[in-house]
Design brief:
- By secondary structure, this protein is an all-beta fold.
- It contains no helices and 11 strands.
- The chain has strands spanning 3-7, 10-12, 18-25, 32-39, 46-52, 57-59, 67-72, 77-82, 91-99, 105-108, 112-116.
- The strands form 2 sheets. Strands 2, 4, 5, 6, 9, 10 and 11 form a 7-stranded mixed sheet that branches.
Length: 118
């Protein structure tokens, strides 16, 4: 029922910024976690940032102080503001919705490519 659509990926210069958006449709459970993950070639998927319905957040150590996750429930959207981008941030970024009430299930978006280079 829930669908996720990411946007905002693209090419950025080192030190630049990008803002990713994820619009979710369908009914969202009262207990939920929206998050961003990324996967670079040859590496495992890793958590970037996530936020619960109560605004509890967590970040990967590698992005703390540079990335910020936020939600606008009225617009059914979760954002990832990425500042001070580095080449190491290059990856496919995936939006995630975790249902934590009425049983556990995780939904994924199709991903959006982020490339950081000069």
């Amino acid at each position: 029922q829930v669908r996720l659509v990411e946007s905002g990926g693209g090419l950025a210069q080192p030190g630049g910024s990008l803002r990713l958006s994820c619009v979710h449709s369908g009914k969202i459970s009262s207990l939920n976690t929206m998050g961003w993950y990324r996967q670079a070639p040859g590496k495992q998927r890793e958590l970037v940032a996530q936020m619960t319905e109560s605004a509890f957040t967590r970040y990967a150590d590698s992005v703390k102080g540079r990335f910020t996750i936020s939600r606008d429930n009225a617009k059914f959207t979760v954002y990832l503001q990425m500042n001070s981008l580095q080449p190491e941030d290059t990856a496919v970024y995936y939006c995630s919705y975790e249902q934590r009430s009425g049983g556990y299930y995780q939904y994924w978006g199709q991903g959006t490519q982020v490339t950081v280079s000069s």
